[in-house]
TrEMBL record:
<feature type="transmembrane region" description="Helical">
    <location>
        <begin position="230"/>
        <end position="249"/>
    </location>
</feature>
<dbReference type="GO" id="GO:0016020">
    <property type="term" value="C:membrane"/>
</dbReference>
<feature type="transmembrane region" description="Helical">
    <location>
        <begin position="281"/>
        <end position="299"/>
    </location>
</feature>
<feature type="transmembrane region" description="Helical">
    <location>
        <begin position="62"/>
        <end position="80"/>
    </location>
</feature>
<feature type="transmembrane region" description="Helical">
    <location>
        <begin position="426"/>
        <end position="446"/>
    </location>
</feature>
<protein>
    <submittedName>
        <fullName>Oligosaccharyl transferase STT3 subunit</fullName>
    </submittedName>
</protein>
<feature type="transmembrane region" description="Helical">
    <location>
        <begin position="149"/>
        <end position="173"/>
    </location>
</feature>
<keyword id="KW-0472">Membrane</keyword>
<keyword id="KW-0812">Transmembrane</keyword>
<keyword id="KW-0808">Transferase</keyword>
<feature type="domain" description="STT3/PglB/AglB core">
    <location>
        <begin position="551"/>
        <end position="675"/>
    </location>
</feature>
<dbReference type="InterPro" id="IPR048307">
    <property type="entry name" value="STT3_N"/>
</dbReference>
<feature type="transmembrane region" description="Helical">
    <location>
        <begin position="123"/>
        <end position="142"/>
    </location>
</feature>
<feature type="transmembrane region" description="Helical">
    <location>
        <begin position="255"/>
        <end position="274"/>
    </location>
</feature>
<feature type="transmembrane region" description="Helical">
    <location>
        <begin position="193"/>
        <end position="210"/>
    </location>
</feature>
<feature type="transmembrane region" description="Helical">
    <location>
        <begin position="350"/>
        <end position="369"/>
    </location>
</feature>
<feature type="transmembrane region" description="Helical">
    <location>
        <begin position="319"/>
        <end position="338"/>
    </location>
</feature>
């Protein structure tokens, strides 16, 4: 097959000696000849990789492939459902879900506070009302339905960059990369299902639209002349994509920020690589897209200044829909108003300036720069600096208010992993990840529209600093790059074949099937992660039946959303209300060695409901007004009072899982608000079979042969608590250093060994002690006993 090139001669490079020019003309300067040859080779490469995607020629195949890819992804995911059929994973006819955040949306759909403004909750409520399927069932199965859509978008990306067959590999495996799959398994109904799908889809729309206006290569075209696109079609497409983008951003404010950053990136890329004569049309389309997509925004955060101030004041009109319809109407009006620039250099220049002013006005009036760019920068900074461990309240010049602990360092999502692990989470193997990165360089060089995938890949790589959660973003994009580059390489051979396109399809499908087979084996061995135990969930259901509607539940923030769903009660903290200022009162009550002090902290904090949400507390706003060097004395005075006014019923939940988190709970509970220092409990956690123990001697031994003696042993069983003390062990040199107290769950066969800081904490005492203990009974009354997994007490006022 001859190498395609504009003059039809494959040996152009060899036939032009250095400094010579054909036809006997004056030789061109050597550096110009080199540049011309490089440009020509670059154009040859663009010709080889084929023409741009054609909707008219391939939409049927794209649709058929998309259906197949979706069905394959759906079957792959639901094939793991039988692993959740164990009776201990069911409560009230529903499976226990696998992620805490899912229960937030389900709790709202169930009736806790308002569902308005929370699309994920509204979607569940709508499906439930339409089909009658249980809320928990929807939360369990939704990832199997929504997750494969990422594979369909991967197919679209492959089609855009290389052709229909170029997207098959990425379509099959792009939605099942480890980083994304780990966060979208069955039972993981959360915004992670949307935070990759929606930005990747909008990025494809922007790339598809911008590709009509961009050069086919970077600063050069593969041909001297290309027919310019119809102006009306470009503008209508911008309007349509903008309205779809508006739907995409409602699921989470982070999605909106990502989409706006993509939009601003489109502005820059088009201004750099726009085809001659089309910049005016490009800026017109960008203005139309922004007006259709962004004003109103998610939760009404982006405004169309100054009109939105008037629109939101109209009685009985939703602020979101008022701004949405008004801005969309303006965008449609601009499509009708704008015409192609008239002939004449001066008129074209005037049209260019008008479009530029309109674009700048839209960007500024929607406040997207300060809203999204600023918020994104702050969020990234919080992830980068979260491990510092403290959050200052007040300025250095005026040290008012406490020094609060940071919660980020206790969240597994911000755990840092090496680059090899990050690449493995992206493309199954680290070596394959490096190959995908190399493919990305080639694809971006030959297809400028591929640049819109780079931000997702950048997030993948940045997870080495931002935390392992961000490894969910780049895997699909890397699969697209790998699949497209593989398709181009295979084309060297298959284009010579009679049925080359079927060979391309077979190669992509075979590799995809091989990866699916490997991945299925890996994912089959993953440990199930129910949010809480069956006994814990049943205890919360019972609490909901016994309690008053205005009651408040004190439970560690990891179980906040699940508590809201099962008990339908507000909680002090949850997955969205877990800053240091929120967790300190809760951590103090759980960590203090005095049940009386725990009760007084609860009575004090319960006086200050959070004004921002219909549940939760905000006692920290009182401490924020106190000079930092007086906080200790002020807190002692507040907790010493006995005349706090009556508050709604307060319930205190302690669970077996809390004992395994005693290190982090005491980190917050023993925090010094003046100095920013703390005292953590020391704890060792053992899974079933990892620790042997001798009840008669109080001796323990692990699998490595290490062990020693403990001061006491507490056995938690369904029928009660058995506690054994070994006073003589304290005199033995074999006594374990620091961690002297062993607690064993006789049902789950788990064990924890902790020091005195954790063992004497109120949460441990309430979990392992006698409710009639004179140090407990005056302050807490046991209302639900779910030993050995959970106990729920009511604070006595």
């Amino acid at each position: 097959m001859p190498w395609p090139c504009q003059n039809g001669r494959r040996d152009l490079w060899r036939r032009l000696p250095s400094g010579a020019a054909p036809g006997g003309h004056e030789p061109e300067p050597k550096h110009e000849v080199i540049v011309q040859r490089l440009v020509q080779l670059y154009r040859n490469g663009m010709v080889h990789v084929g023409p741009e995607a054609s909707v008219a020629a391939s939409w049927r195949r794209v649709g058929a492939y998309g259906v197949v890819i979706f069905v394959v992804g759906l079957i792959f995911r639901i094939s793991f459902a039988d692993r959740w059929d164990h009776p201990e994973l069911w409560v009230a006819g529903e499976r226990i879900l696998a992620t805490h955040d899912a229960y937030f949306w389900l709790a709202k759909a169930k009736g806790l506070a308002s569902v308005s403004g929370y699309p994920s909750a509204q979607l569940v409520a709508w499906v439930h009302g339409l089909t009658g399927i249980g809320l928990g069932d929807i939360g369990f199965w939704a990832p199997a339905v929504l997750g494969p859509l990422v594979g369909v978008v991967c197919l679209l990306w492959g089609w855009l960059l290389g052709g229909v067959n170029a997207g098959v590999l990425a379509g099959l495996v792009g939605s099942l990369t480890p980083g994304f799959y780990y966060r979208t398994q069955l039972g993981y109904y959360d915004t992670d299902l949307f935070t990759l799908l929606m930005p990747m889809m909008v990025a494809w729309m922007l790339a598809f639209w911008a590709g009509r206006l961009m050069r086919s290569g970077w600063l050069v075209d593969s041909a001297d002349e290309r027919e310019p696109p119809a102006a009306a079609r470009v503008l209508w497409l911008a309007l349509g994509f903008g309205l779809v983008s508006r739907f995409a951003v409602i699921w989470h404010e982070d999605i909106q920020h990502m989409v706006i950053l993509y939009y601003l990136m489109t502005v820059v890329v088009l201004m750099i690589n726009c085809r001659p004569g089309l910049r005016t049309l490009a800026m017109q389309g960008l203005a139309v897209f922004a007006l259709a997509s962004f004003p109103g925004g998610v939760f009404g955060q982006l405004k169309l200044w100054p009109i939105s101030g008037f629109l939101v004041s109209i009685p009985g009109v939703s602020a979101y829909w008022a701004v949405t319809l008004f801005s969309a109407a303006i965008a449609a009006g601009l499509v009708f108003f704008w015409k192609p620039p008239a002939d004449g250099a001066e008129r074209r220049r005037d049209a260019l300036w008008v479009a530029a002013v309109a674009l700048v006005a839209v960007i500024l009036s929607t406040h997207m720069l300060n809203t999204s760019v600023g918020n994104t920068a702050l969020k990234l900074f919080s992830y980068l600096s979260g491990a510092a461990g403290i959050v200052q309240s007040g300025s250095a010049a005026v040290p008012m208010g406490p020094v609060y602990p940071s919660v980020l360092q206790s969240i597994i999502e911000v755990r840092l992993e090496p680059l090899s692990e990050v690449l493995e989470r992206g493309v199954f193997f680290s070596w394959l990840g490096w190959l995908a990165l190399l493919s990305s360089v080639v694809v971006v060089a030959l297809r400028p529209t591929a640049v819109f995938l780079l931000p997702l890949i950048a997030l993948q790589l940045a997870s080495v600093k931002l935390g392992i959660r961000f490894s969910m973003f780049g895997g699909a994009a890397l699969c697209v790059m790998l699949g497209v580059c593989l398709y181009w390489l295979a084309a060297f051979v298959t284009r010579r074949m009679r049925h080359g396109q079927w060979a391309d399809l077979g190669l992509q499908a075979s590799l995809g099937a091989a990866l699916l087979f490997y991945t299925f084996g890996q994912y089959s061995a993953l440990q199930l992660t129910p949010v809480l135990s069956r006994a814990h969930a049943e205890a919360l259901v019972e609490l909901g039946r016994k309690s008053e509607p205005d009651a408040m539940v004190w439970t560690w923030w990891d179980w906040g959303y699940a508590t809201q769903y099962y008990a339908l009660l507000g909680t002090v903290a949850d997955g969205g209300k877990h800053a240091g200022r929120d967790l300190y009162p809760l951590g103090f009550a759980m960590s203090t060695h005095s049940p009386e002090q725990a009760s007084r902290m609860m009575r004090f904090a319960a006086q200050y409901p959070d004004r921002k949400v219909p549940y939760g507390l905000d006692a920290a706003r009182v401490w924020d007004t106190i000079p930092r060097d007086r906080l200790g004395a002020a807190l002692e005075e507040q907790l010493g009072r006995e005349d706090h006014p009556p508050v709604p019923p307060q319930y205190f939940v302690v669970s077996w899982h809390d004992l395994t988190l005693v290190k982090w709970i005491t980190h917050f509970g023993n925090w010094n608000l003046e100095t920013g220092t703390t005292r953590e409990a020391e704890v060792s956690i053992f899974q079933p079979g990892e620790l042997g123990f001798n009840v008669e001697r109080g001796a323990v031994m692990d699998r490595q042969g290490g062990g020693g003696l403990v001061r006491d042993l507490t056995l938690l069983d369904r029928d009660g608590i058995n506690r054994r003390a070994y006073p003589l062990n304290a005199l033995s040199p074999q006594l374990l250093p620091k961690t002297h107290h062993l607690v064993i769950n006789m049902v789950s066969k788990q064990s924890v060994i902790m020091d005195g800081t954790g063992f004497r904490s109120t949460m441990t005492r309430l979990m392992t002690g006698d409710p009639d203990d004179p140090e407990i009974a005056p302050y807490f009354r046991l209302v639900v006993d779910g030993l050995p997994f959970v106990r729920i007490y009511q604070m006595i006022q």
